[in-house]
Each structure stands twice: as C-alpha cells, then as structure tokens.
Write a structure and sequence with these properties.
single chain, 7-stranded parallel beta sheet, 5-stranded parallel beta sheet, 12 strands, elongated, binds NADP nicotinamide-adenine-dinucleotide phosphate
C-alpha cells in the first residue's frame, strides 16, 4: 500500500477539513491525513507532505519526507522557514489561478483606465465633469513579473487592446509584449507605464523594490496595481507619491500586515483602493487536481515536480 500523505497546515479546522476532503476526492487510491491524526509509524513512512502555512516543527516530524507540495502559489514564507531542510518544495502552478489573476488584472486595469476613481470622487462632490477619453491602444500596462501569472495577464491585456510591457529577471520573448530584464529594463518599463501591475514573488531581490526612487521614474499621473505581496512596495513612499500627485491611484490587494490594520492610513486615502487579498483566490478543487497529477507522476517513477529554487527565493 502507498505510504500515507501528510496534510500539514496551520489553518482553521473547517478550512483544513475542506482541504482534506478536496485532496482525498482528487486522489482516489491515496490517503491524505492531517499530520496530527497520523500514527508515529505513518509519519515515519510518509514521503509527501501537502502544506498550507505549515508549522516547520510539524514538517520535522516526517523524517523520510521526499518532497513538499504547497497548495499556494506564493512560497516566500516556506522558503524562509524551511530553507535549512534539503527537501524540495513544489509550489502550486494552476492555470485556473492564473486565469483568475488575469481576469483581476484586466478588471482593475479597466477601473483605472476608464477613470472610475475620478468619477467616484466627482460624484461625492456632485461634480458633472467628463474626463478626456484615452484609447486602450495608446495606454501602456506594464507587468513586473512575467511568470505563470504575469504571462496570463499579459495575454488578457493584449486581447483587450492595451499596449503591454513586461519585466522579468531573465530576458524573455513573448508575442505582443515588450519584454525587458535587468536594471536598465526596469527603468524603461517604469518610464513607459501608464498602469504598473506588480506580479513579482517576494524575495530578497524584490523586497522594497518599489520605493521613492522607482516611483520617481514613473510618468506623472501613472497608477499602480499590487497583486503580488505587500512588502514589495515601500508603503510610506507610495503614500508620498500619491499625496504629491505624482502617482494618480493605487489598487492594493496585498499588504505588509494582513488583514490591513484598522489604523492604516491606506484605508481612508482618497487615492487608494484597498482589496482584501482577493485578486486570485485558490480554488481547492482545481488545486487538488494539480496536486493529484504531481503525486500520480511521482508514484509512477519517483519524478518530483520542478521545485522552488531556494537561493533565488521563488
Ligand atoms: P512565477 O511563475 O515564479 O513568476 C515570477 C516572475 O517574477 C518571473 O517572471 C520572474 O523572472 C520574475 N522575477 C522574480 N524575481 C525577480 C527580480 N528580482 N527581478 C525581476 N523579475 C523577477 O510566479 P507567479 O506564479 O507568476 O506568481 C507571482 C506572485 O504572485 C507569487 O509569488 C505570489 O506572491 C503572488 N500571488 C498573489 C495572489 C493574490 O491573490 N494576490 C495569488 C497568487 C499569487 P524570471 O521569469 O526571469 O524567473
């Protein structure tokens, strides 16, 4: 009989139960068991851990674990907490998630492009004023990050008629996207963006990346969308850039602390839209299907899916 698979989370019980059910439904012939319910013998035999915000001490209870499958796309916390373990960490790469993120990027791009923040302000002031119309094909949306999510968003924006630029660590060539890499590439992308969308992972290379210096390189009146991780943006510098009128608006789905503390200046800032980390929610059923495919391949010949590069941080 195949060794049992451990589910290791620090989620509330109802969330953890929902994951157990979704994973067992997607994995007939396997048994996914919450680590707390496993016998010492089962923990000893366990080769695969499926994790969602796991306690590193729980992972240490699985001495023969060969790989860790996360059910989330972002892995900065796993990398920080499990870096000293020689066990490959596999993150969730789910086309359904990328599709939802692409939808969110398009939705909030249209919100900014069609001046909805300005019209909301005008309505509150009982002001009847038509903003000048811009054309999508004359509007550049720049994506920081051209990975699974950035590429799906680029495609959707291109289909909607926007000019699309993108920035990644390594040079890329993507049809319909002006691709840039490296420090000079970042300058070019920032200088050309009407709307800047952040879809980078949080790593030592991206923490605090978007600060006063980078905002200063952007066009006056440009806007920012951060759907990646809060600490990539220096919040104080962003507020200063909005207050001075250099940047027009920021749509933020992610924050240094989540939930966003009640006393955060961002809540009431007239040029900020606060979203409660909803741009691309994980779909348990489709995530469980992806995890099941990875586990099936491993059972055939021991293939472990491509793992996170710990040194790179993503
Ligand atoms: P991914 O496939 O790993 O892609 C990351 C992209 O960022 C790659 O293009 C990579 O460049 C680029 N990159 C990384 N470090 C860089 C650096 N220092 N300079 C320039 N480019 C850099 O990740 P993904 O699946 O697209 O996800 C991106 C992030 O979205 C996740 O890490 C997570 O934090 C966030 N996320 C948010 C939500 C939400 O609901 N708000 C949901 C899911 C994910 P290369 O192509 O050269 O490697």
């Amino acid at each position: 009989m195949a060794c049992p698979i451990a589910l290791v989370t620090r989620l509330p019980p109802e969330e953890e139960n929902a994951w157990t059910d979704a994973l067992n439904a997607a994995l007939p012939g396997e048994t996914v068991t919450v680590i707390r319910s496993m016998t010492p013998e089962e923990r000893e035999r366990c080769e695969i851990a499926i994790v969602a915000n796991p306690d590193p001490a729980d992972i240490a209870l699985l001495p023969n674990c060969r790989w860790i499958q996360s059910v989330w796309a972002g892995v900065e916390r796993l990398v920080a907490e499990l870096a000293d373990r020689p066990v490959p960490i596999v993150r969730l790469v789910d086309p359904a998630l990328a599709d939802k993120m692409a939808e969110a990027v398009l939705a909030w791009t249209l919100y900014l492009f069609r001046d909805m923040p300005a019209y909301a302000r005008q309505q509150r002031a009982h002001l009847w004023k038509q903003q000048p119309y811009r054309r999508a094909e004359e509007t550049t949306v720049a994506l920081l990050g051209l990975g699974a999510l950035g590429q799906a968003a680029a495609l959707r924006l291109g289909e909607a008629g926007f000019r699309v630029a993108g920035w990644s660590r390594r040079p890329k060539s993507i049809d319909g996207v002006a691709c840039h890499a490296g420090e000079d590439g970042l300058k070019t992308v920032l200088a050309g963006a009407d709307i800047l969308v952040c879809l980078l992972p949080l790593t030592e290379g991206t923490r605090g990346l978007l600060d006063a210096a980078q905002f200063g390189q952007m066009r006056k009146g440009a806007s920012l969308v951060n759907f990646a991780r809060g600490p990539i943006v220096a919040t104080g510098d962003l507020i200063a850039a909005l207050d001075s009128g250099h940047l027009d608006h920021a749509v933020l789905d992610v924050f240094d602390t989540e939930p966003l503390p009640a006393d955060s200046l961002l809540w009431d800032h007239p040029s900020v839209t606060v979203l409660p980390h909803i741009s691309a929610p994980t779909d348990k059923r489709s995530a469980a299907r992806i995890v099941a495919e990875n586990i099936a391949a491993y059972r055939v010949d021991g293939t472990i899916p491509p793992a996170v590069d710990i040194a790179r941080g993503y």
